[in-house]
Write a structure and sequence with these properties.
Length: 444
């Protein structure tokens, strides 16, 4: 009997009480399958090639347009997204120095090998570069970062004034934000930041015992009491967000989020210090994630949407990604719509890369040369991800996390790949179990 070869993009098959499904990497879609189509796709080799006899099975697969459309791997069907040259945000490293000595800091515990302070002229030139390279954007962003940026408050004030001058002359608006450890956030500084509409993000890792295990002064004192005292007014007014770094010392993100939200922070971001993780830590993260997934499933199916509050930030993000079917090539705007500019005016993909010469992508003198970096972080160029069904969900993972663990931005670690795929498998099964009404309630 003659055989037909059916070549497909990477996919994953799922079976649940609600039926049989496939998730395809080509268009990030979850598709329901008939038993016959499922049986055909189940026979695929590791290269997602199905060898089929020319009979009714083939006809059914080919006629099932809702399944075949968009997943047939024929010719050069995937286009590599071209790196955008239009900036939206710059991260100004106002100072490469810090008054804390956080144990996990990418800046050598806040001490930085290349210590120094950014000059006001350099910062103004950086703003000019943003304006000249933002294309037709009318809204752009300046992010004050460090080290501890409030150690260079003079620069911050100068750039706020400069941005106001530019806005008077050009049809452009600057959004501004600062990420600070809050230890220098006195009443005068708070009032200045509020009066100038500068969004405030506080670095704090959760309850006192969690935060003070890692976020310490040079003499070993914890920073928690200072942070909470200095942000009390902002938290009462709902004008401060929080960013928590999660280490292997304490992996319970639900406890962290719950504490920070109940303390008055309006938003909570979670980042994992994966360079400190071992295999046991990854397994703990997976088990904790499964607990959250099971809990959120119970709450949704009981219609208790208002009780879905803490510990679900990443779960919601994953669910939303499945629901929206958004397709992309890059994990974020790193090196593309966003760059970090160090004290000397050199360009890096983001603040975490500052000082990593291998990934310098230009300077105020040279301009931006990010093509090689963007090619490297584009998930469609990752050899390791070529046959992975999950690649358009994780998008190759955080570029810096990859670098920190494997030494290169284009290769995530095997253990992190296994973790993200296992979590997404559980998330997809949860999504399959949702009714149309539950999806409307959850994503509206």
């Amino acid at each position: 009997m003659n055989q037909e070869v059916l070549r497909l993009f990477p996919y994953k098959l799922f079976v649940s009480d609600n039926g049989k499904y496939m998730f395809t990497s080509k268009n990030n879609r979850l598709l329901r399958l008939s038993d016959k189509v499922y049986a055909v796709l189940e026979k695929a080799t590791g290269d997602f090639i199905v060898y089929l006899p020319i009979d009714n099975y083939v006809l059914e697969v080919l006629q099932a347009g809702n399944v075949v459309k968009g997943i047939m791997n024929v010719g050069n069907a995937e286009m590599i997204e071209k790196g955008a040259q239009e900036l939206q945000s710059i991260i100004l490293m106002a100072i490469q120095d810090c008054n804390l000595n956080c144990k996990y800091c990418y800046g050598e515990g806040g001490q930085f090998k290349d210590k120094g302070i950014m000059g006001i002229d350099t910062a103004k030139r950086a703003v000019d570069f943003l304006i000249d390279n933002c294309g037709n954007r009318k809204n752009v962003n300046i992010i004050f970062f460090g080290g501890e940026p409030l150690l260079n408050l003079k620069l911050i004030k100068a750039i706020v004034d400069y941005a106001k001058e530019v806005e008077q002359k050009r049809d452009i608006h600057f959004g501004m934000s600062i990420t600070t450890n809050a230890t220098l956030l006195n009443k005068e500084v708070q009032e200045y930041l509020e009066d100038n509409n500068i969004s405030i993000k506080i670095s704090i890792d959760g309850p006192k015992e969690v935060n003070d295990n890692m976020r310490v002064f040079s003499d070993g004192r914890g920073s928690f009491d200072s942070i909470m005292k200095n942000t009390e007014g902002l938290r009462k007014k709902g004008k401060a967000s929080a960013r928590a770094t999660v280490t292997s010392a304490f992996l319970d993100t639900k406890t962290i989020e719950k504490f920070l939200y109940e303390s008055g922070f309006k938003e909570v971001g979670i980042a994992y210090a994966v360079e400190s993780f071992d295999e046991e830590d990854y397994e703990k993260v997976y088990n904790i994630s499964c607990e959250y997934i099971d809990e959120i499933s119970r709450l949704i199916h009981k219609g208790k949407y208002n009780e879905i509050r803490y510990g679900y930030t990443s779960i919601f993000a994953y669910l939303s990604h499945i629901h929206s079917s958004v397709i992309g090539c890059y994990p974020c705007g790193v090196g593309r719509t966003m760059i970090a500019i160090d004290k000397d005016g050199r360009f890096f993909p983001c603040q975490r890369f500052v000082g990593v010469e291998k990934y310098k992508i230009g300077s105020l003198e040279e301009g931006l040369h990010n093509d090689a970096f963007l090619h490297a972080v584009n998930v469609l160029t990752h050899k390791k991800c070529e046959k992975c069904w999950c690649r358009n969900l994780c998008l190759g993972k955080c570029s810096y996390d990859n670098y920190a663990v494997t030494g290169t931005v284009d290769e995530p670690s095997d253990i992190s790949c296994r973790l993200i795929k296992r979590i997404y498998e559980r998330i997809i099964l949860l999504y399959i179990s949702l009714s149309d009404e539950e999806k409307r309630n959850l994503f509206s």
